[in-house]
Amino acid sequence: MAKGRKIQVNQTDITVVHKNNVDYISLTDMCKGFREGSGLIGKWITNKNTLEYLGMWERINNPDFNYPEFEVIEKDAGINRFIMSVGQWIERTKANGMLVQSGRYGGTFAHKDIAFHFAMWLSPEFQIYLVKEFQRLKEEENDRLNLTWNLHRTLSKVNYRIHTDAIKEHILPKTLNKEQANLIYANEADVLNMALFGKTAKQWREENPDAEGNIRDQASIEQLLVLANLESLNAEWIKMGIPQPERLLKLNQSAISQLKSILGLPQLKKLM
For the packed helices 124-170 and 221-239, what is the interaxial angle rounded to 10 degrees? Predict the structure, then answer.
């Protein structure tokens, strides 16, 4: 498992990892500020009320949850000989709300809902501070994502000006009126849309009548980055007199190549 991000609660560093598009908070780290240490996790998960909560959470959020096996566990919970670990819980019920990982950055991790439940079991005060710090982390991530998205959107708009200038200088006949010119600009913009998104702005709008903005407003950071590059390339190829059909093929090949190169880059993953 990756190193993850850190939040600090009551002078304790707690790891938050992102896996399968879900945030998991380290229960192991949460125990460090308590005298009993990670043994508290075992006591918590054998508690009948805890198991009732976990069973309900999995039933709502996990279509693969083994509910018949959970009923067996729930029936046994509370008797003196009952033993349960997080690993056993996951194996027996196919639960996905918690993870057990080995290695340097390993430990027991839980979905934020479950982590907050564990934190309340540890201490109501601890739970309040954990929720606040986790919310602060997510707000910072969203702010950084929005800033980066806006940066690339601005870059795309700057390159769009370069692109339209090339169209004006090398494609537009001098006698066209404004409406006719706009048609040519839109046509060239759709060359880029086809190369990158595989559809025109009109086609996207017909497929997404309720969406806000346009096809480019809904683009990912990676797509916006590639779009800025495509606008520069197309502007140069327009100046070179390359016909539009040939430019479209070349732009599409470039878009595919660039996306393959940047998708999954750690630098971009940090912004997600």
Answer: 10
Q: Report the Cα–Cα distance between both ends of the chain, in Å, rounded.
A: 17
Write the pLDDT tens digit of every residue in 143-159: 665 555 555 555 556 56
Type of residue at 218: Q
Q: Please name the residues in contact with 248: beta carbons below 8 A apart, sequence gap of 6 or more.
A: 191, 194, 195
Put the strands of the sheet holding 5-9 in their side by side order: 5-9, 12-19, 22-26, 107-111, 98-101
Q: Which residue has the tokens 């839980």?
A: 110
Average the pLDDT over each of 43-57, 86-100, 220-234 and give the range with the smallest value: 220-234
86 contacts 45 by C-beta, under 8 angstroms: yes
Task: Dump pLDDT digits (tens) for 177-196.
Answer: 556 555 666 778 888 888 88
| Spatial contact of 127 and 198, defined as CB atoms under 8 Å apart | no
Please indicate, yes or no, whether the overall pTM of this predicted structure exceeds 0.70.
no
The full DSSP string for the chain is ----EEEEETTEEEEEEEETTEEEEEHHHHGGGSTTTTHHHHHHHTSHHHHHHHHHHHHHH-TT--HHHHHHHHHHTTSTT----HHHHHHHH---SEEEE-STT-EEEEEHHHHHHHHHHH-HHHHHHHHHHHHHHHHHHHHHHHHHHHHHHHHHHHHHHHHHHHHHHHTS-TT--HHHHHHHHHHHHHHHHHHHHSS-HHHHHHH-TT-SS-TTTT--HHHHHHHHHHHHHHHHHHHTT--HHHHHHHHHHHHHHHHHHHTT-HHHHTT-
